[in-house]
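ok so I'm stuck.
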Amino acid sequence: MPNRKSQMEILGLAIVVVLILVATIFVVRFLVIKAPTNYRKGFISAELASNMLNTFLKTAAKDCSQLTMTELVQDCAQGRTIICENGQESCAYVELTAKSIFGQTLDKWNTDYEFLAYTDINSPLIKTGKRCPAEKRSKLFPIPISAATVYAKLDICG
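replied:
not stuck anymore, here's the structure
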């Protein structure tokens, strides 16, 4: 009978080991392996807004004496004296170019956006894209002019 008693002890130890393994699996599954937080998406959207707006404002206008978009936005806010080679004034040229550039990039990436250039947020000089209904990442660039400051703003939705 001593063999029977030792077999029961080994069986009891085996059950304890199995219970410990099951408990460890649950701990690992629910506590250690959590769904990763999505910090990266917000950072990427903020960087995308910053880089896109910065690049757009430094872009030279091929039909407007190679002036930069920044210079055309300044003219748009100060009196619209620049007429480009295609016959458009500075505001219309910047808006058309913004639609084209953002359409070929952000639209193709299925990324909603809104681009604004304004001295007064309630009456923007240039506006393209759709207003972001919920969460957005924005980049705002101030552009100095003689009387005030023009702001160029790009909102990336999502």
